[in-house]
Amino acid sequence: MGMNEQVAKILIVDDEPQIRKLLRVTLQAYSFGIHEAATGEDGVRQAIEVRPDLIVLDLGLPDLHGLEVLSRIRAWSRAPVIVLTARDREEDKIVALDGGADDYVTKPFGMGELVARIRVALRHASDSANEPTLTFGALSIDLVHRVVELDGERVKLTPTEYELLRVLATSAGKVVTQRQLLQQVWGDAFSESDSHYLRVYIGHLRKKLEADSTRPQFILTEPGVGYRFRSRD
């Protein structure tokens, strides 16, 4: 880490002291600066005071629901938010992602996984300074000229397929919900019942991009939630 490189500040909002301790010890070992809050109100206040680079937010807080904390923070901040949620609350994940969370990790979670998600979210926040071309291994997407190449060969996509790929790839490493995809690709004309179109188009894209569309390398399915494009590592 260079002398001038800022240490990323992470705010942990969780009411369980042992989880806060685990996160603090682990994340400090990765040279992150840690701030903690045990309640939603304190989390909102600290987000304003500390201006963290990333927030880890437990949805099950004693005072405010995590989604309320998220919407208060999202009213003014674009800092990435990773929510912690109980494994069986599928609906929470979707509502949180639609409400502006960047990713989610289900409890119990592995620290390795969480650290990887944090790194992706921080990188995504810093490089959303609009690079003209995105590269993922053998796949390159030229956002200016709308040209997609795989192994140096141009891939012919329909406008809708391209738009779907663009939305997924510019959010690489993040989960994008079905609803977000429908809205960003098809606009306000969509309804939730159109989600089967999404599966059809994802199928078309996989046929054109994946060596084996039953074991996708680029467009990964997050069951019940949406899709996640492979992160750029």
From TrEMBL:
Annotated OmpR/PhoB-type domain residues: 131-231
Residue span, Response regulatory domain: 9-122
Q: Which GO terms describe its biological process?
A: positive regulation of DNA-templated transcription
Question: Which residues are recorded as modified (4-aspartylphosphate)?
Answer: 58
Entries under Gene3D superfamilies matching the protein: 3.40.50.2300, 6.10.250.690, Winged helix-like DNA-binding domain superfamily/Winged helix DNA-binding domain
Q: Which keywords annotate this record?
A: Cytoplasm, DNA-binding, Phosphoprotein, Transcription, Transcription regulation, Two-component regulatory system
Q: Which GO terms describe its cellular component?
A: cytosol; protein-DNA complex
Per its UniProt record, what Pfam families does this chain match? Response_reg, Trans_reg_C
Instruction: Keyword check for Membrane, yes or no.
Output: no
Major place of localization? cytoplasm
> Which domain of life does the protein's organism represent?
Bacteria
Where's DNA bound on this chain? 131-231
Recorded GO molecular functions are: cis-regulatory region sequence-specific DNA binding; identical protein binding; phosphorelay response regulator activity
Q: Where in the cell is it found?
A: Cytoplasm
Report the protein's function. Answer: Member of the two-component regulatory system KdpD/KdpE involved in the regulation of the kdp operon. Upon phosphorylation by KdpD, functions as a transcription regulator by direct binding to promoter regions of target genes to positively regulate their expression.
User: What is this protein's name?
Assistant: Transcriptional regulatory protein KdpE
